[in-house]
Write a structure and sequence with these properties.
- This protein is an alpha+beta fold and 616 residues long.
- It contains 21 helices and 14 strands.
Length: 616
């Protein structure tokens, strides 16, 4: 999650949606009061009519009787235990049953509002406490998370019950009728929401952190291992237990368990990028390694290891609330707390980055830190540009050759204006830390690099790289790049299947590899439904329907049968409705799943074509 750092942005993205938590309780509070007043008015009107028609009453008696009933509403009598009103209550037996329901729901709505306000105060205090220090950050999150998941479950139960009750009484009071179907639907939604929320409290998310890399045993890189140990000795921190070699555009350390190559590594793990090590002189690489070891020394990785499973559990809980339908207001409320905590987390992580930079500068120099930051940032920026350009192309690539393209074009990129925008307009990618801007990091270590100096830094030949001391470094890179580029090609091929209209036979064959023609057998002979990337057909229709002309699709139950209803708008803008009886098919669910998939492809294709035409 990337926190919105501006006050208006945070207010718009987090605070305002969080207020939906109070919407249903507020409506329930108003409605119960309105319903009670409505009942009181109806009872009083009936009494006034009876009193007005009672010929045995004198005018004085009539006035006294009306004054009493106007002073004591029916709801007050129903909810009172006063013996003097017992006779009045006995005549309102049916009315009192309704009034007591209104009172119970009024109390529930008031309780939900009070619970929401109390939770808001606790969440706000915990969120602000997270800014005090790292220990406070951990404790405040644990307290806030445990309080919020309990109150979230209570809100789900309470608001679910209130929603079901309102689904009956709103229509009953305002339209003198009620809909069993509406009550049933709301009841099912409420039950599902409560079930999902309660289950999510106890379900633990998978905590596998998988890294695409190879374990660098000490026998394959004895010099690098020895050097890392010497750096750790100078910093007075235990060395890593494992070193991983990869091709990602970053370095990192972690104390969390890491899955790599089918095995799980525990303890301290250092990840080094072979691609980046080739660009770094020894002193510059030392600055990066010392920076990462500084995270171990500063307790950043230990703090992250303790916090990560709780953040993951919270994220899973948020996802459940988001998917729960009626729990969406609770989701937005808890998301606001997560957003506030992310602000404190980003602040402390940026402070940790600057502290690690200063520590590394003391081991090496501010100049080495500055040069390594420029090289790492430029490589990451250019690689991202190369990959984005390849992925945006609307034709298949025989070979993506990302590593070759990056190496071939890096010199031209280093001398362009684009490099300055990438370095100063973005942050270095990292899986655990929020990095400060480059300018702040350079100022932090008292380093100065003019724009003209950056091209020189990037183009200077490297005299010594730690890669040269790693056995099989080229083979490791080749294996990792091969696997990465294969996945990239597969993802691009799939995206092309969503982009193509298609407009020729080659494109058609490509689309049909991912979206082949399908047929769905009916329960009786001669019944069949067909589907391909362009259209859906049915044996009962005169002609198939083009997916590009479907403006709306929904399912409905009619006469004990289930239908797929399509709203179709043809090129002449005429509108019609087509219905496919799903109950006549042997596997209607398979058709629905495939139809949703194929229709999604068609709509994605139309959106891509529209964007391409606008860009042209």
């Amino acid at each position: 999650m990337r926190p919105t750092t501006t006050a208006p942005g945070f207010l718009r993205s987090y605070v305002l949606p969080a207020l939906w938590l109070f919407a249903l309780p507020l409506f329930g509070l108003w409605f119960t009061g309105h319903a009670t007043s409505s009942v009181d008015g109806d009872v009083l009107a009936s009494i006034e009519k009876q009193v007005g028609q009672d010929a045995e009453l004198t005018e004085e008696q009539r006035a006294e009787t009306l004054a009493f009933f106007r002073a004591v509403p029916a709801s007050a009598a129903c909810l009172s235990t006063d013996a003097e009103l017992a006779n009045f209550r006995s005549n309102l037996s049916e009315v009192c049953k309704d009034v007591k329901q209104f009172d119970w729901m009024h109390t529930l709505a008031l309780g939900l509002l009070a619970l929401g306000l109390a939770t808001t105060v606790i969440a706000l205090l915990c969120g602000l406490a997270a800014f005090v220090s790292r220990p406070f950050q951990f404790i405040s999150f644990v307290v806030g998370w445990n309080v919020l998941r309990v109150t979230g479950a209570l809100q789900a139960i309470g608001q679910g019950g209130l929603a079901v009750w309102l689904s009956y009484w709103v229509t009953a009071l305002w339209f003198n009728r009620y809909s069993p179907k509406l009550i049933g639907v709301v009841g099912i939604l409420a039950a599902m929401a409560i079930f999902l929320v309660v289950v999510a409290i106890f379900r633990r998310p998978p905590m596998d952190f998988e890294v695409e890399a190879e374990v660098l045993e000490e026998s394959k890189a004895p010099e690098l291992w020895a050097h890392v140990r010497r750096l750790c000795a100078r910093l007075d921190t235990p060395p890593p237990d494992h070193i991983l070699a990869g091709i990602d555009a970053n370095f990192f350390v972690t104390e969390s368990d890491v899955r790599v190559g089918g095995q799980t590594l525990s303890g301290r793990t250092l990840y080094v990028s072979l691609s980046l090590l080739r660009l770094l002189e020894q002193s510059e690489a030392d600055a990066v390694l010392a920076h990462e070891m500084g995270h171990l020394l500063g307790g950043d990785t230990g703090h992250g290891k303790r916090l990560a499973p709780r953040l993951a559990h919270f994220a899973q809980y948020l996802q459940t609330l988001h998917e729960g339908g009626l729990t969406r207001p609770i989701y937005h409320f808890m998301l606001a707390y997560r957003g506030l905590f992310e602000l404190s987390l980003g602040r402390s992580r940026r402070a940790s980055e600057l502290a690690a930079d200063r520590l590394a500068a003391g081991i090496t120099s501010g100049r080495d830190i500055a040069r390594s930051l420029v090289k790492v940032g430029a490589y990451a920026g250019f690689r991202e540009r190369v990959e984005a350009d390849l992925f945006s192309r609307d034709e298949r690539q025989q070979s993506v050759a990302i590593a070759h393209r990056v190496a071939l074009g890096f010199a031209d990129y280093a001398q362009s204006d684009a490099v300055h925008g990438d370095l100063h307009g973005s942050v270095t990618p990292h899986p655990f830390d929020s990095h400060p801007p480059l300018s702040a990091r350079l100022e932090n270590v008292n380093a100065r690099l003019a724009p003209s100096d950056m091209a020189q830094v990037l183009l200077e030949p490297v005299t010594f790289s730690w890669v040269s001391t790693i056995q099989e470094a080229e083979a490791i890179e080749a294996r990792l790049w091969g696997a990465y580029e294969a996945r990239f090609s597969q993802a691009h091929d799939l995206v092309l299947a969503y982009r193509y209209v298609p407009s020729n036979d080659e494109e058609r064959q490509h689309v049909e590899r991912h979206f082949p023609p399908l047929s769905f057998e009916g329960k009786e002979a001669g019944q069949e439904a067909t589907l391909d990337f362009a259209q859906v057909g049915c044996s009962e229709w005169e002609a198939p329907v083009l997916l590009s002309e479907v403006t709306h699709a929904s399912t409905a139950d009619r006469m004990f049968k289930k239908y797929l209803d399509l709203q179709v708008t043809t090129e002449g803008r005429s509108k019609e409705k087509r219905s496919l009886c799903l109950s006549k098919l042997k596997d209607p669910d398979a058709l629905l799943r495939a139809f949703e998939h194929y229709l999604g492809r068609c709509r994605a294709m139309k959106e891509h074509q529209a964007r391409s035409q606008q860009a042209a």
